């Protein structure tokens, strides 16, 4: 890396590029604060990151490596009345119980005529047919093995030739479908974007609101979750959400349809009848509505997405939120970002950078310099031993040794077919799997198709999440074997319809909602952001970011809209370029155009100084223009 | 005429003149004190190309290249990338390969690549021979051009060359990509809920 030093003075220094940190960074930079945003990792988004397949293999390997922390003496950098507060460099406790399983063939099976892949034709021996070895890669050595096969790939080789035929998906219900080999997964690795967290955006949730409000939305594109499924009695069923769905549903009886419509319409308003159930389980309330088992199941698990003992008022609030989110962008309440959730923190980071924020990955903070009298952090010492002064310091929880009270359980699967094949092979599905036994955790599953740009055509990326009770593998492998096929599956006769798992990995991740943030003996201008929480939405991180922002800057607006590209008017002195920079900084003024045509980019000079006022005015009609579809 | 939006991202070391090239192209303006940190979300300029209008959405690095911290999202969906070096700085030419590699890793597979040797108004202190740069560009099948953002040399031409290399639009209906940007107004096609 270039030996360039960072500037030594900032208003806000932020360590960690998770969602909350990135939103704080964007918000502060947007209102003119000088922001330094660091991450010790080589990638953005911390535990919110998404990785290519190969990037994920590297990440897995890194999780198994113990990092040694060198302790150095920085006291020479201290001034009068200051003391040092050391930060922890590693974040080992946030990811545990990592296990990797590969169920597909190591190498390609015999190639069919359609694929003219030069790599495969040069292969000397073909592997034994259908030797479905199970590679259990839960320890360090096997992970190393994975990376050797990765290194064997010719660098820069175009994965073009081996790209699975889009038509492969059409034959997916046939048992003879051809599986992608492990070598192909590696070769196509860059076309995967595998998220560490599995969340969705509620179409009227706080993250969507924030993206729109701030104009950060222009950096990302989204897909609708196209259907809501639930797993019941060994079957995958579609949950009707919209009026059209209800009427089109083949599983519902006519009476059920009427009841469901009536219920959904009536529950939008609070009634005395509902209030009578306050404090009692939502399940009781639903039972008393005489809805029947089917509808009760849909309402509790898929619409409210609560548990059997959730109180009625909470269950109703969740139900209403779900219903309010319907129809804004699509048929379900949820959105998913193209290229994965890891894009979102990066978008906020870009907004921060656009307004002057400084970015430096692979760079950390060793310790804080605290003023003894005021208990304020005056400066930080970075990983190069440079003293950087700041007025505020924001840090991810892993660096301050927070307690992990609760863990989330995760599994990520690459499969070869959808859990519910339909007319289109490009469905994005949200699946709720109710507890197998009473009191067990509900599993939330998101199945992504290749048009979300998170996996290659012919494969699906399946994210499973639940609250942890044991290790991730203990919690989720029963669900995986129930809904999918692996080489370990028994009863070969019974499993044709189920998708085959090519590769999967399990891990536990600290649940950010349970991290003890308050009560640390931290300086008063140090703020801790927690990692991803276990809930489906993003409310926790957005709320936390806004809270921290207002603590730092009580009187400032949180993420006002950034100007639209077409509104940035360069105040050029025509014909005399570079004349006006006596003021040290050249100036840009913003203007709201009212007319939009091809000529609008011909910038006209303008000299009003109403910069701030213009910036914060929302330009609704323009946003409509950015709609691509 | 149909307007086609094309994202173009700029790459190259800090100080080679990326922001200046964008500024020259979009606003026909040059300023020596251009702030190194304040890049745009993206700027736009529309140019005719055959039977189409190409509306370039030009993404500048926003300074994230300074400490080698460009985010993968920066490259997403780019139709073209301009990798800029400074003809008076051999270093900036030597890091071209690193940027090409980075682009191969994170950029779309079918991206049009252009290499721009900027500051060619400073020929007397040139450190990078044009021939060498041109050969390198040919070796990776990239467009090559030397520019001067300062004197407005070849900046328009750079983007014209890119325009020409952009493959004509296949039937847009065929590739029904239903991803969208979030807007204040809900999409009018969305179905009503219960
Ligand atoms: C090639 C190119 C060059 C560009 N060059 C510049 C450039 O040099 N400067 C530029 O601003 N944009 C530039 N832009 C546009 C741009 O990068 C952003 O879109 C733009 O900075 C956001 O506009 P803004 O002026 O509202 O930013 P602001 O948020 O206003 O920030 C601009 C700077 O001005 C300061 N500032 C903001 N408001 C005030 C105020 N009321 N009084 C005093 N200082 C204030 C801020 O602290 C900040 O340092 C350029 C774009 C391109 C493509
Ligand atoms: N002489 C000359 N200087 C240039 C040219 N283009 C940019 N510069 C100067 O080079 C410096 C860096 O330019 P900038 O656009 O900020 O580079 P960036 O970091 O790549 O965005 C500025 O001082 C510019 O004025 C050019 O074509 N000729
Ligand atoms: Mg620049």
TrEMBL record, chain A:
One family name in Pfam for this protein: RAE1_2_domI_C
Membrane spanning stretches: none
Cellular component GO terms, alphabetical: cytosol; nucleus; Rab-protein geranylgeranyltransferase complex
Organism this protein belongs to: Kryptolebias marmoratus
Composition bias type Acidic residues, residue spans: 106-115
Region listing for Disordered, in residue ranges: 106-128, 149-178, 560-629
InterPro entries: FAD/NAD-bd_sf, GDP_dissociation_inhibitor, Rab_escort, RAE1_2_domI_C
PANTHER family listed in its UniProt record: CHM, RAB ESCORT PROTEIN 1, RAB GDP-DISSOCIATION INHIBITOR
Function recorded in the entry: Substrate-binding subunit (component A) of the Rab geranylgeranyltransferase (GGTase) complex. Binds unprenylated Rab proteins and presents the substrate peptide to the catalytic component B. The component A is thought to be regenerated by transferring its prenylated Rab back to the donor membrane.
Statement: the UniProt record of this protein carries the keyword Cytoplasm: yes
GO process terms (BP): intracellular protein transport; small GTPase-mediated signal transduction; vesicle-mediated transport
Assigned keywords, A-Z: Cytoplasm, GTPase activation
Comp. bias (Basic residues): 619-629
Family: Belongs to the Rab GDI family.
Residue ranges annotated for the RAE1/2 domain, each copy included: 409-533
Keyword Chloroplast: no
Listed Basic and acidic residues bias regions: 593-615
Protein name as annotated: Rab proteins geranylgeranyltransferase component A
Alphabetized SUPFAM superfamilies for the sequence: FAD-linked reductases, C-terminal domain, FAD/NAD(P)-binding domain
Lineage of the organism: Eukaryota, Metazoa, Chordata, Craniata, Vertebrata
GO molecular function list: GDP-dissociation inhibitor activity; GTPase activator activity
From TrEMBL, chain B:
Keyword entries, A-Z: Cytoplasmic vesicle, Endosome, GTP-binding, Lipoprotein, Membrane, Nucleotide-binding, Prenylation
Family listed: Belongs to the small GTPase superfamily. Rab family.
Species the sequence originates in: Kryptolebias marmoratus (Mangrove killifish)
Membrane topology category: Lipid-anchor
Compositionally biased intervals (Polar residues): 177-194
Matches recorded under SMART domains: RAB (SM00175), RAN (SM00176), RAS (SM00173), RHO (SM00174)
Family annotation (PANTHER family): PTHR47978
A GO cellular-component term linked to this record: early endosome
InterPro entries: P-loop_NTPase, Small_GTP-bd, Small_GTPase
Protein's recorded name: RAB31, member RAS onco family
Coiled coil segments of this chain: none
Region (Disordered): 170-194
């Amino acid at each position: 890396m270039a030996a360039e030093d960072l500037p030594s003075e900032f208003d806000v220094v932020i360590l960690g590029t998770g969602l909350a940190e990135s939103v704080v960074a964007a918000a502060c930079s947007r209102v003119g604060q000088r922001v330094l945003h660091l991450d010790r990792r080589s990638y953005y988004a911390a535990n919110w990151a998404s990785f290519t397949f190969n990037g994920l293999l590297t990440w897995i390997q890194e999780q198994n490596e113990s990092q040694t922390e060198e302790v150095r003496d920085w006291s020479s950098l201290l001034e009068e009345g200051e003391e040092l507060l050391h930060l922890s460099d590693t974040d080992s406790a946030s990811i545990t119980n990592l296990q990797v399983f590969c169920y597909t063939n190591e190498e390609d099976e015999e190639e069919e005529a359609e694929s003219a892949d030069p790599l495969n034709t040069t292969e000397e021996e073909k592997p034994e047919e259908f030797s479905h070895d199970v590679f259990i890669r839960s320890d360090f050595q096997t992970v190393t093995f994975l990376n050797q096969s990765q290194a064997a790939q010719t660098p820069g080789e175009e994965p073009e030739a081996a790209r699975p035929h889009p038509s492969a998906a059409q034959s997916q219900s046939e048992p003879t479908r051809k599986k992608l080999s492990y070598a192909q997964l590696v070769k196509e690795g860059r076309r995967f974007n595998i998220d560490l967290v599995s969340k969705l955006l509620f179409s009227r949730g706080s993250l969507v609101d924030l993206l729109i409000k701030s104009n950060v939305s222009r950096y990302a594109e989204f897909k609708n979750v196209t259907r809501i499924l639930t797993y019941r009695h060994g079957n995958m069923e579609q949950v009707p959400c919209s009026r059209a769905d209800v009427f089109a549903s083949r599983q519902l009886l006519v009476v059920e349809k009427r009841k469901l419509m009536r219920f959904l319409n009536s529950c939008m308003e609070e009634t005395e009848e509902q209030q009578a159930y306050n404090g009692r389980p939502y399940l009781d309330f639903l039972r008393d509505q005489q809805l029947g088992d089917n509808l009760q199941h849909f309402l509790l698990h898929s619409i409210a997405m609560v548990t059997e003992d959730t109180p009625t008022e909470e269950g109703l609030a969740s139900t209403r939120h779900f219903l309010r989110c319907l129809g804004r962008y699509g048929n379900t309440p949820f959105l998913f970002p193209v290229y994965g959730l890891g894009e979102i923190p990066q978008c906020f980071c870009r907004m921060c950078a656009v307004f002057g924020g400084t970015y430096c990955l692979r760079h950390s903070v060793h310790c804080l310099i605290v003023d003894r009298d005021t208990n304020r952090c005056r400066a930080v010492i970075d990983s190069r031993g440079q003293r950087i002064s700041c007025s505020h310091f924001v840090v991810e929880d892993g660096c301050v040794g927070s307690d992990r009270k609760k863990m989330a359980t995760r599994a990520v699967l690459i499969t070869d077919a959808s859990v519910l094949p339909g007319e289109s092979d490009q469905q994005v599905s949200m699946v709720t799997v109710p507890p197998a036994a009473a009191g067990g955790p509900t599993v939330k599953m998101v199945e992504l198709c290749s048009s979300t740009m998170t996996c290659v055509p012919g494969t699906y990326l399946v994210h499973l999440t639940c609250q942890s009770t044991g290790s991730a593998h203990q919690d989720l492998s029963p669900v995986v074997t129930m809904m999918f096929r692996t080489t370990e599956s028994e009863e070969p006769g019974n499993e044709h319809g189920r998708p085959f798992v090519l590769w999967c990995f399990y891990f536990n991740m600290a649940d950010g909602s349970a991290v003890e943030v308050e009560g640390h003996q931290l300086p008063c201008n140090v703020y801790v952001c927690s990692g991803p929480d276990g809930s489906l939405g993003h409310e926790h991180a957005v709320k936390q970011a806004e809270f921290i922002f207002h603590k730092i800057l009580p009187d400032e607006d949180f993420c006002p809209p950034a100007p639209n590209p077409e509104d940035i008017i360069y105040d050029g002195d025509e014909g005399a370029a570079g004349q006006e920079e006596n003021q040290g900084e050249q100036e840009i003024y913003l203007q709201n155009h009212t007319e939009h045509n091809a000529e609008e980019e011909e910038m006209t000079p303008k000299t009003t100084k109403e910069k701030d006022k213009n910036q914060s005015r929302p330009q609704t009609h323009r946003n409509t223009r950015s709609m691509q579809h | 005429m149909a307007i086609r939006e094309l994202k173009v991202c700029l790459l190259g070391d800090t100080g080679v003149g990326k922001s200046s090239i964008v500024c020259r192209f979009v606003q026909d303006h040059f300023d020596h004190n251009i702030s190194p940190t304040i890049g745009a979300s993206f700027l736009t300029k529309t140019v005719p190309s055959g039977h189409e209008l190409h509306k370039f959405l030009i993404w500048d690095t926003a300074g994230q290249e300074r400490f080698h911290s460009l985010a993968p999202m920066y490259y997403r969906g780019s139709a073209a990338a301009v990798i800029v070096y400074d003809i008076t700085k051999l270093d900036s030419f030597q890091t071209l390969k690193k940027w090409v590699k980075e682009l191969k890793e994170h950029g779309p597979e079918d991206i049009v690549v252009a290499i721009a040797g900027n500051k060619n108004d400073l020929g007397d202190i040139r450190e990078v021979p044009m021939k060498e740069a041109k050969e390198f560009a040919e070796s990776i099948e990239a467009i090559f051009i030397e520019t001067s953002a300062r004197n407005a040399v070849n900046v328009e031409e750079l983007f014209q060359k890119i325009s020409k290399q952009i493959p004509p639009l296949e039937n847009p209906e065929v590739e029904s990509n239903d991803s969208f940007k979030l807007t204040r107004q809900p999409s009018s096609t969305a179905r009503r809920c219960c």
